[in-house]
Amino acid sequence: MSVSGGGAIRFELPAGLVGFAELKQFELGADSGAEPFLLLRSMEPEQIEFVAIRPEGIVPDYRVELSDEDAAELGLSADGPEALVLVIATIRSWEPQRVTANLVAPIVVNRGRGLGKQVVLTNYQKYSTAYPLIDEGAEEAVAPC
Are β-strands 115-118 and 107-110 bridged in parallel, bridged antiparallel, or unpaired? Predict the structure, then answer.
């Protein structure tokens, strides 16, 4: 199941997102002009949109380590073929030239079950909640937009 071909993926987050516990149903879609960014849209009760990325190939050496409880709840291991890992990007209105991502608390989805969860990695100390993806104020951007 891939979003790069333009098709959307739907899945459930029974616990919602941090700060948005009421949002349970999501759709993930791609816009060919915005790669590597994806649009994560809640389907109810109101449609709220988040910008997300798949960190593989963008964040060097990013390794998702799930707790045994999270892995059992999702029915997968983080590096299994059914795992879809997303991190939410932050674009601040007062600083749009700088885009960061939360690597500490990714959304991990079991594609086969359509079930996901925002988790705190067991190896969270290695990562930042504000990893720079784009910083036009720096000499070189980390990820092209």
Answer: antiparallel
